Structures are given as structure tokens and as C-alpha cells.
Structures
1.
Amino acid sequence: MEETRISRLYAAMVAGRLAALRNSVWRNTLMRSGLLTAAGLALVLGGVIFAARERGRGDLTKLKAQLGANATVPPPAVIQFGGQEALVLQRSPMAGGMVPEFVTATFLPGRGMNLLQLRAFLPQKGEVDLLASPRLEDAAKLMNGAALDENGAGSLGLGGALELPWGSRLGGVASADGKNVMTTWQGRGLSVPVTVSGAANGGMAMGGLLLTRGADTVETNVMPDGDSTKAVFEAGSFGGRWLAKTEVTMTALLSSHILEIKVVAKNTGTEAEPVGVGWSPRFAIVSGDRSHARLKLPSGERVEVGADGRPTGKLLAVTDTGYDYTSRGGVALGDKAMDASFVHLKQSLLDNGPVVELRDQSSGYGLRLTALTAAIKCISVHSPADGSVVTINPRFNYDDPFGREWAKEQDTGMMVLQPGESAQWKVRLEIFSLDNVPVTHF
């Protein structure tokens, strides 16, 4: 019995020593070495990684979506013009931001490829709007095809409308209800809708018949330094308003310093037709400082206009008159209104065609518009004295090209296309810094 008691005593002593040794090892190896802390951090990190993986797989997102299903925000409504979305050509400004550059050009395929917005980057100013146009949302409310916009007047008051099968004004005899203008071409009668009503319009139809027409096909391409687009309009006889049938193809190319627009009108009918093409961009004076904006026009002659707003058939010299804007640096607009058409245009030696320049001295940039096809025989300029908008309209035809005020031998600019023939209209718009030499012409 004594031996058994002594054996149990020694066993208890050994067990106590082992327990003490185990506690010592725990304290020395785990607690003091930081392994316990590391183990805890590992558990936390593992949880974070697991959550991230679940989120990547969409599980957490799905859970949040289920919990907040009743608070889902609907996507914004798509803004359309004539049933088609706006088309945006865009590019990124070059690094450095030392010179003006085009950034975006927004066209409306559903409204005859109206150039609604043109944005540029200007040093010290950032991105600005070069055209006098509102936001897309507001423009869509004005271009609704109803009331005053029934025949496309909204397109003429915003951005830059393409004008076919004539440019600017077409005169004639107003119908009894004042809704149409009746005229004749080679003995054939034409009745076209009045776009802008009112006595001041004097029985003139404005801006052609493409203003509210939608494109049949539209293509876009990404270029090395910008974008390009092509739109085709199978216009036919423009709803029975015109002779023959017309296919209109418009292409545009946007790069850093150039916006180039080309229009080809093709007679796809079986009889001859007259065709005029124009474009009426409403350029904004970005600074709002009209007194220091300068306008330069090509040399030529001015179309005399009577009190009723119609051309008289006379062409007047502009040299040394109030309409002489041919000086090299242009002439300040000041507080003088401008509303005139110029013909018999002449180009300078180094230019590729007749040139119009609009310089915004206060913003440090200029716009140079060059008529690249000889068929462009008239350029009109409209700028009210109390505004900061300058509308420049390069086109084939004179105002009222079928009017009896013109002598029979006077070419009023309308192209005559036989079946299968085409006419091309092309312009180049350049932006340049007033602190540097303008970009090289080519």
C-alpha cells in the first residue's frame, strides 16, 4: 500500500511538471513571438478575400439588388430627333493643351444631319460650344415637328442645317393660305412649304426640304485622330414637292483642327432637276464680346436687296463700302448688324477656295471656312447687332434663284442634273490660335 501511494505521488509530481512546462512553452513561443496575433490577422484577411471573391462573382451585388429592388433607378430616356438618336463624332485633346482643338461634333441623322453642336478645347478656357445651340434635351423640345417646327424651322434656328434641294431663300407667289410658295423652273410648276411664316419673309421658302427628313442609312468610322460618318438620304421627289428623284449622301470627318463636310446630290430619276446645296451654321462668339470679334470675307460683289427682303437683281461692288470685309485681319463687327449675300467670290493666291474667317479676339481663336468646290457661288452672312451669333451660309445658289428679277444670262447658281448625274458641295472648317500662324492649308 505504501509503495502504491508513493507511486501515485511521483505520478502527480510528473504531471504537474509537464503542465508547467506546457504553459511555459505557450507563453514563450506563441504569446511573446506574436504568432497568435498573426493567426488572428490571417483569419480577418481570409474573410476579406472571401467577400471580395463573392462580390466579383456578383453574389453580394445580387443580394443588394434583391434587398433594394424597390429602390432601383430607371435608365435615362433616350433623346431622339425625328425618331433617330444623335450621332457624336469625338476625339481626345492632345497633351499639353497649347492650341485650340475640335473635341466633338454632334449630328442629327433624323433631322437632315443638322450639326447641332460643335465643341472645342481652348487654352485657358477648357471645352466650349462653338455653335449657338442648347442642350440636346432642350433642342429636342424645339425640334418636335409641330407648330412652328412643322416644316423644319427649328433646324434653321439651331446648330447648322444642311439645305437641299436649294439653299437659303426660294421666292415665288404665296398661296392663299400662306402655307406654300409657288414658283416655276423651265415652265414646270413647283409648290414648296413656307418654313418661316410672316410678312417679313415676303413669300420666301427657307432652307430646302431636307430639314425634317431622316437618314436611310448611317455609318461611322474611327480615324487615327478623330471620327468620320456617312449618311444617305433616299429623298426621292421630296414628298412630291420637287422634280425627278434625288439621293443625298453626306460625309463628315472630324480631326484635331479640321471638320470637313461633303454633300453629293445625285439625280436618280428619269428627268432633269435643279439642285442647290447649302449649309447654315450659327457660330457663337464664345467670349460674348461682339465688339472685338472680327469678320473676313472673300472679295466679290454684294446682292442688292429691296425693302421687302427680296433681291433686286443688281450686284454691287463692296470695295470701300460698309460691306468691305476683305482686309487681311478682318473687320470688327462692333455694333453693326450684318445681313448680306456675296457672289462672284474670289480666292486668295494660297487658298483652296473662297475663305470666310471669324476671329474671337477675346477668346484667342479663329474659325476659317473654305469653300472647296467651285459650284459654291454664294456666301451669305447674318449677324444681329444685339447678339453674339454669326451665321455663315456657303451655298450653290443665289437667293430666289428662279426669280424674274435676274437677267436671263445671269447664272444664279442652281445646278441642273440630268438623270444619273451628281453635284458635289464641300467645305472645310478649321480652328486656329490667334497667337500662332494658322494651320497649314492643304
2.
Amino acid sequence: MSIKDQNCAYCVHGEPLAAFGIYVCDLSDFSSLYLFKEQSHPGRVIVAPKAHIEDLTDLTDDQRNAFFADVARASRAVKAAFHPGKVNYGAYNDKGRHLHFHLVPKYADEFEWGGVFAMNPGRVTLTDAEYAEMIEKLKAAL
């Protein structure tokens, strides 16, 4: 499963990834976990396959099961580390054509509780130290 797209942030990492996210860790042989830099929803992460897969329908049954096991594992870690009221899930890959799921913790006192989350509300960015602290919380919960 080594297929990579040299124009894809999830495949090449570096500057394209740094524009929106931070690599956290590999969840399995299949998927990786990323912290979304815009943190209006504390603990927001992304789960993406390591290989360049464009659509959920491109997965075999075994790959789909592995991917969703990783999504569930990441969601449990987000819940344990940040204690949201709910985790919302979104898969939007019409621009970035690499299958990925956004896991968006929602909090009852939050500006978007009860509604659809904004993809990038641009309200909260953190210091490198704050991102590192969040990453450590996630890793500890995994």
C-alpha cells in the first residue's frame, strides 16, 4: 500500500500538510492521525489512509474495516483526552482528493453546538507548545 500522490498533503507531508495540520502518529499499518491546526473545536483531528486513496468506494472490505477501526480508535482518544459532548464526523475530499475523515469534538457551550461545523472557521490557532500538549494528550489516550 505504497501509492503516493506527489501533489497531496497527506502523501508528501512537509509544507502542504503544515498549511492545515500536524502529523501525530500512525494509528495502524493503514491510517495516520493528524491534528487540525484550526482548533475552534478543541481536539479536532483528521484520520487519513497512508496510501493515496480517493474515495471510500475504492477500499476493499478489509481496508474499509481497518480504516473505520482507526477512525473509532481516534474518536475514543479524542473523547478520553478532551471530553466533548459529542464527536461529529465529516468526509470532504472534493478539493483534496485523498480520503480522510475530520473528527470534530463538539461541546455543549460551543458556538456551533447543534449545527454543522464549519470546515475552517479561522477562530482559534495555538502556539507550538499548545499543539504539542494536545498531541501528547492524544497519544496518551491512544
3.
Amino acid sequence: MAGRSSKGGERLLNLRGNVWWFRQQVPEACRKVLGAGPRFLLVNLGTSDVVEAKKRRNELEALTRLQFGQIKEGRRTALQLPDWAAQSVQGGIASPAARGALARASIEAARDMQEPLADEEDDWGRDTPLDLALFSAEEEARRLRPADRRAFEDALIGRVDIDYHLGAYLSKADLAPKTLNERRGLIGRFASWCRAKDVKLDRVDRRTAGRYVSEVIDPMHAATQTKHLTALRSYWKFLAQRGLINLPPAESVRSGWPWNEQQLDKGGKRIERGAKVGAERPFTDEEVRKLLYSPFPLRPDWEALMRDVLRVSLLSGMRLAEVLTLWVEEVHDGVFDIQHGKTSAAARKVPIHPDLREIIERRTKGKAGKDWLFHEMQNERDPGDTFGKRFNRFREAVGVDDRRPGIRRSLVNFHSARRWFTTKARHAGHPKETIAEIVGHAPDKKDVTFGVYARGASEEQRRTCVAAVRLPENTFK
């Protein structure tokens, strides 16, 4: 039998006593932002099971690699770790809310692991069932533990948990942090359902997928169903591309089997008189008046931020994350020069509405290029989520809400400002192609003339379109 690899399946793992630790080197550029501390991020994984340790390692590495990149770009100032890891991090480089006190023994163990880290081959995500089989076989020969014997037998025939490859998938998925966490939760929910029914990855077929859809997904709102199935299809495409699952002969690697075509078409449902459609909608002009001009019901120091961000979105159609994370240097020459976003179409130049000039002048005064325009959110762990929750409290407090029976979410939210802008631009008679460019929607490739051949709206067309949108008058004076 081959000898145990010096790294291989135990990459970034360190066994101290009977507990596995995660250890990853912190880039020098990140240490300058995170403050003085050890050169390594050390997290007690809280398990002696190597299989569980690998799962937690994969999750932590995917998160830290993504966040280290954001820190280097100036878009993050602290690490955000999962709840299970936040209380056992060592080194003082996570956000204050994520740090917990360690026992003396854990601190001593962490101190022992501060030796320099040799350059390692980037074999992230390459652990296979064979790696696990070899390691488990060595452990079985050495200790003959029942847990290792079961792991060996499962790995030998490819029987692993649903989320065994989740860390590798998330590390390769080019997704925004919010979407990344959402995918982790949705796929993890299916993994938990399978564990409860003792279903392994190799046993998931069309029937199993159908049972899960019937029991869990069907009762959800149609939009949530789509989001859930999209996450599962994407994960299964990755598994198929890497040869980690076997597809039926008639299925393509790109099909998303067994999750493709699982959602029932509800488009033919009859609408009766008086029925209310449950689609999220734009704000009405009266709702905009309440949000902009009514007495502010929350903390006074939140008012300027809340209403400035809202005005920018109402008069530009920009998404919440795009507004909140604007750098001062990205506001120049009369445009918001957006360099990142939800899709490739999100990178664009949005003309600055004349009514926003006072906000821009006030918020850029005395700031450097990479300072945040909305500096109040710069040190928040998740600016979009934090602001979104505050905005919902504000919205409900001033009487802007739309709840319908059987629908979990209100039909109005911050995104309704973006919908309001789009609606007003359309009512002003501007072409849909020009509006789509301003709000960052990809062109319709089925429309050959505008989606393929046309080169886009002119700068003057975009400025005219933005300027045509006017806020309602203040009736609260």
C-alpha cells in the first residue's frame, strides 16, 4: 500500500491531538488592511473526523480566497466566516463580532503552528473519492476504527454525501458573494434532506430529484423555486463536467439532469375578477413621496445615508450594491463609472442626473480616489444586507408596504426604486434598448437588429433619458 502523502488530502489541515485545524497563509497585502497579527489564519474545525474536516476546509478556503481578493481591491476590511467557525478563529484578523475566546490549550496549539508555510501546489478542489479511499484504508490498517471502515467502503464505490464536492464547485463558480452564500445554503438544504434519508450522491436520480421537488420546492413561491432549481442544476453541471457523476446515455453534460424541467408551468392559471397578481412592482409616486419627504422615523444619523442612496437609485436605476460600493474615483466627468456588478452588462457608464449634483459634491468633498462615496457603509461586513434591513424597517415605518396572502415577501422593496426609474423612463418615451443600457441589462440576442448589430445608445441619448425622470413634488411641506 502506498505511504501517506505529506499533503494531498490533508492540504491546509493540521491534526493537533485529536482535533483538526485549518491553517491558511494570509497574503501580505491583506495583513496591512486587517491589522497586525499572525501570518496565518487558524481555525479550530472542532472535529476529529477527517471527512468532516475536509468539508469544512473546502468551505473555509473558498470563502477566504474570495474575501482576500476583495480586501486587496479595497472592497472589504474584515473577514466574514461561517457561524460555526467564527467562534474558534485565532489571530485577530476577523471582524470583532466573529472573534471568540479560545481555551488556553487551543491558543498553545495555534502558537505551535506558526512555522513558515512552504509553497504548495495549487491542488484546490482535486480531492477525489480515491484520495479518501487511500487515506481511509491507511487509517483502517493503523487503527481499525469503524468510522474509517465505513468511509473507506463508501469512497471505494463512490458513495459520498451530496455536498462532498461543494467547496470545489463554489471555488470555481464566478459568482457574487451574496449569490455564492445563497448557493451554499440551497445546495446544503438538499444535502441535509438526503442525509436524513440516507441518500448518497451516486443514488440521486430523476425520481429522487422529483421527490425533493414535490416535498420541498413545490410549496415555494415561483421565484424561489426557480432560484433553488438553478442552484442545483448548476452544481450538477459541475459534477457532470468533472466526471463526478454518471449521466444516463441520452443526457448532456449541460442539461442539468436530474433537475432540468422539474418546475411546473403555472402560466395558464385562470385569473378571476378582483384577483391580485403577486409580482414585485415599482414604487408608486405617492410611495416615493413618503420615502423621500416624510418625517424620518429611525435614528437621525441614518437619515442622510438612507435618503441619499434612495435618490441615487431612483434617478439612475442602479442596483443597491452598485450604489453602496461606489468609489469616489468612479464618479467623474458627469457619470457613475460602474466597473463591477451582477453580470457582464453591469459594467457601464450611467449619466449623473442633474438633481444628484448636490449629493455628489457633498459626498466627494475631501475624499481620496478609493474612498467610498457612502462612507458610512465601508466597514460593514455585508453592506447590502445591512442597508437592506434598515431600509425595510424605514419603508414599513413610513407606511410603504404591500403584503399579499400566501406571499412571504412584500411586493415592494429597495429594488422597486430601480423599477420606478425604468417605468418613468419608458413613460417618457425612450427606447427600451437605451433604458436597458442605463440599468445594466444585457441586450436581447434574439433581436438581431438591436441585440447583435446595433452599437448602443449615444452618450446624448443616455443623458436625455436619465434627465427625463423627475422625482415627485414634496407634498409634506
4.
Amino acid sequence: MRAFGYFRDAAPGGHSLAQQNKAFLDYCGREGLEPADTFVEAGPANGLAPGFRQLVASLRASITADVVVVVPAVGVLGASPRDAVFRYLQLEALGARVAAIDAGAPAGDDQIITWLREEDGTSLGARVRAAMRRKAVKGEVLGRPPYGYKVGSRRRLELIPEEAVVVRYIFRLYLHERMGIRLIARRLNEEGLKTRRGGNWSMVSIRDILRNRAYLGTYSRFGVRVPGSHPPLVSADDFGLVQDRLNARRTSFAPRVASQYLLSGLAECGYCGNKLIGVSRKQSWKRRDGKPMSNAYRYYQCESRTNQSVCGYHTRRAADLEEQVRTALAEEIRSAGGLPEADVRDDGRAEQARDIQRLRARARAIERRLDGYVAAVTKGRLARERLRELALAAAVDRLAVDDALDAAERRLEVHASAAERRSERALGVAHVLDAWQELPFAELQAGLRDAVARITVTDDCVRVSLRP
């Protein structure tokens, strides 16, 4: 199961980002989670919260149904209890569950955000948790169903025959034909089998399926396990053997420390169009005098080959490729006579500003709607079981409004003074090129992304496309 970390630079307790990251990795190690990525909120957790928006985008792009969002404390999610509730429910609507490190809860037990207390002293969080547990005990599906299943009648998991065949195929290839995860992904991709989203299979998606206990016919959610809640796709004996083999291949249980790569998200393979990813390799050897030696090497490789066993590795040393990009960027700017001007016009700014005001008004209306639901429960006019369903719907509506508001504000930014923006960018890129070796990593990467839209890499060529 993969885990995303979500931090804030002003976290409760005054913990630094380094301390929060260490706590996240320690938590993943204890709970058997695979650290996937981390997102940081640089400032108060109000407004649109760019770190949270990036987390939402990653969850939407995630091909696995089992994702945990790990936070240092529930208060990190929002500047106010209401914001925290909205964001918690939005994460749940996207198929993730939230785990708070400071809650001290057992593995699999979600920490529900405490919000408004009613007259009987019971918190909304406790009522939401109780409602979710009641649904889980019944085997009712909460969130996205795993590959191979759909949400059927009575909110139970039902088989999707064409996907179920693929799941059984994956288990057979791994267990009986002794194929590795990478080769299984390659086999599925070569045979034209697609994921639910229509994409290629990767090592992560294959491993998530092999680890998922849902294929035993057991529904697991919110610390509750319901055996026999839906049709199984693999026997208990076969599933156990698969886990034994997966565990035997894991030789190191130390938390993984992700390396930073300057061209991440920018460089793409010129052959298949997929991203290049950073890869670290450590080699050890002995000199003639018997002294042990070791060295770490950093590369960029085609992600299609690394995770899906298609395309080719097309490996490039990180330092060499980054220096080639620096040279190519300088040449592209020189030949183009500077950075390209964005195609912007000043008309429509007033209407866009009005759109933003309307969207903000809608967001406030949704907040009042949630307040009304809580008040109705307090006065006995709304059943507690109904509250969570309505609150979740409100959170989903708010997420759609936030999407629209984010897009509207980005459009308005485009209409800022083109000349001023172009001048600032030109100075920034010149500074990046001149101080390439001296700049801190974050500043260098930000400057590079401000100038470059795409870097296309082949075995013998690097092409830089400037951002308009």
C-alpha cells in the first residue's frame, strides 16, 4: 500500500520539515507502507493551498485504489476545523484514507477529524467514524473499488469479468510461472491489456494487486475486516505463498530516502514520450590490495522501461544530461532571440475577476450548507447516519469549486502585464544559467521550470522547448 505525506512548514508543535519527513518515513516503516511522495504547504493551510492541490492531482492520477495520506496531525489539513473536515472528506472521496501520526492509532484505523461538539458532548468525528465502521462491518464499499471489482447492489463488491481474468492471470504468472513483477508488467503491456484508466501496467500497479487482500473475498476498511463479503479471485493458500515470495525478495527494511533530480517532471523520452525518472545505483568492489570500495551513480532512465518493461532504458548520467540541458537551454534562448512572449490579451480580465467572486461565493454557500447539516443533527431534524453522506457530497462539491477557482485564478494570472512577466522571467533565467553550479537545488529547479516547458531526450540529442 502506498503512502503520501502531507506536511506544513508551520506544523503543530513547531516540528521542522525534516522532522516531519523523518516521522513520515518512520511511520511508513512501522505500518508496512511504501512511501510514494510528499507534499508541503509553505504557509498557512488556507485558500487553495497549492500543496494540497498537488496532493489531489496525484491522487487523481494514482492507478491504485489503496492509498494512505499520512499527516503529522489532523490540524495540518486546514486552517480551521471546518477546512480540515472538508479536506479530510475530499481525500476520502478520492479513494484515500487519512492517518495522523500523532493519533497513536493501530494500523488501518483512520483518524477522523474532531470538529463541532454537540450538546451531548459527542464530536462529529466520532459520529463519522462510527457511521463508517457500521458501513464497513456490513461490507459496504467506501471509496474506489479495487481492480477486478465494481460497486454493485447493496454497495457490495461485484466482479468485473474482464478485469477478474487479468487479476487471476497476474497471480498465476507470479506464483506458478515464477515471473517477476517487472516481467509481468511487460507481458501485460505486450499483450495489449490495459489498466482501468486505459494506461500501461507498471511495477507499482502489479505489486499493489499482489498485496491486496480484497482478492481473498475479504473487505478491509477503517480497521474492520469482513471475510466472505464478496467473490474471491484467489485462494488463501495461493495468496499466502505470494506474500511469502514478495517478503522474501525484500532484503532491506530501512526507510527509503528519495533523491532529488533536477529534471524530474521536465525530461521525457524522445522515443515513447514518457517521463525520464531519476535512478540511483550503488556499486561495491575491491581494489587489488583488498580494500573495499563503493560509489553511488545517478542516472535518468525512461520510466516506460523501468516500470512497464516497454521502450528502452535510454540511460543518461544525471550530471552529464543536466549539463547538456544547460547548454541546450542557453542555445535555444540565443537562437530564439530571448524567451517567447505569451499570447495574452487584456480583454476579459473583468469578467474573469467576476467569475472568481462568484466561485468564492459558491464555496461560502457550501460551507454554510455543511453548517446547516450539523445544526439539523443537533436539533434532531437530521439523522446522524445521514449527516456523513450529506457532508461527503458537500465536500465533493467544494472540491469541484476549488478546481474551477484554481483554473480561474490561473487564467487571470496569465492576463498580468506580459511585458513585466517577460522581463522578470528573462532576468530569472539569465541568473539560473550564470549561477547554475552555485544555486540551491530548489531555486535552480524553480528557475528551470519557469523557462522550460519540456525537455526531449534521445540517445544522441537533447531538445529544449521554451515555456511561452
